[in-house]
TrEMBL record:
<dbReference type="InterPro" id="IPR002925">
    <property type="entry name" value="Dienelactn_hydro"/>
</dbReference>
<dbReference type="Pfam" id="PF01738">
    <property type="entry name" value="DLH"/>
</dbReference>
<feature type="domain" description="Dienelactone hydrolase">
    <location>
        <begin position="31"/>
        <end position="230"/>
    </location>
</feature>
<protein>
    <submittedName>
        <fullName>Dienelactone hydrolase family protein</fullName>
        <ecNumber>3.1.-.-</ecNumber>
    </submittedName>
</protein>
<feature type="region of interest" description="Disordered">
    <location>
        <begin position="1"/>
        <end position="28"/>
    </location>
</feature>
<dbReference type="GO" id="GO:0016787">
    <property type="term" value="F:hydrolase activity"/>
</dbReference>
<dbReference type="InterPro" id="IPR051049">
    <property type="entry name" value="Dienelactone_hydrolase-like"/>
</dbReference>
<keyword id="KW-0378">Hydrolase</keyword>
<dbReference type="InterPro" id="IPR029058">
    <property type="entry name" value="AB_hydrolase_fold"/>
</dbReference>
Length: 234
């Protein structure tokens, strides 16, 4: 099947034991599939309850490159009032459900990557420290030196545990990611056993989910994401 559709990804049995009744043991997902055979899969973590047009455009562009994109609804456990995202065991359970959904459809584990923006970029980073996936990308990941929640480790502390090649994109004028902290993260990820790259853009021009198609830096950031997955998901 190609195109965009909604589906559900079953949680693993061990994760269902601790689920709240509202979740039903399933993770609601939105899927964008490419034409023809997929070359791999991207789990897109996002904070929004609804997809913006720019985010859908990015998902379609990734599918156009041959990736099956799976976006889980991370707030399916009646956490609609949460303002900082989903972390800890719930995050890993939801990612595992998406991972299993992809592998059941013939996607090889080492061709599965994860992508996230803002606090979901933090989540993508932490997934890459806990799961041996193919590659990870974080855009504007928060919580660099101080954890966002009790369930989310600070990125500089988690960085040496990275298990997947990781790309981080940041904007100089983003108050949530001060340049000095980004430099700390660059140094911390350099100590990991996998490849890492931190790229800083002027102003706030680091958003690959930007609707400003004429912004050269936004185009560059999207190209870097595509190239990172192209190079590492093989």
């Amino acid at each position: 099947m190609s195109g965009t559709y909604d589906d559900t990804a079953p949680l693993r049995a061990s994760d269902q034991e601790d689920e709240r009744p509202t979740s039903g043991g399933q993770v609601p997902i939105t899927v964008v599939e490419p034409e023809g055979n997929a070359r791999g899969g991207i789990v897109l973590l996002h904070e929004s309850r609804e997809f913006t047009g720019a985010l859908r455009d990015l998902m379609n562009a990734l599918a156009g490159e041959g990736w099956t994109v799976v976006a889980p609804k991370l707030f399916h456990r009646a956490a609609e009032d949460s303002g900082v995202g989903v972390f800890g065991d719930e995050l890993f359970a939801d990612f595992d459900a998406c991972f299993d959904w992809l592998t059941r459809r013939g996607v090889f584990p080492d061709t599965i990557g994860v992508l996230g923006f803002d606090s979901a970029g933090t989540a993508a980073f932490l997934v890459a420290t806990n799961r041996p996936i193919g590659a990870a990308v974080s855009v504007a990941a928060h919580g660099i030196t101080e954890p966002l929640t009790a369930q989310a480790d600070a990125l500089v502390r988690a960085a040496p545990n990275l298990q997947a090649p990781w790309l981080g994109l940041f904007g100089v004028d983003d108050p949530a990611t001060p340049p000095a902290q980004v430099d700390e993260l660059r140094d911390a990820t350099a100590r990991a056993a996998v490849a890492s790259l931190v790229v800083t853009y002027p102003g706030l021009h680091h958003r690959a989910d930007s609707s400003e198609a004429d912004d050269g830096d936004a185009v560059d950031s999207q190209t870097r994401i595509f190239d990172w997955f192209d190079s590492n998901l093989r």
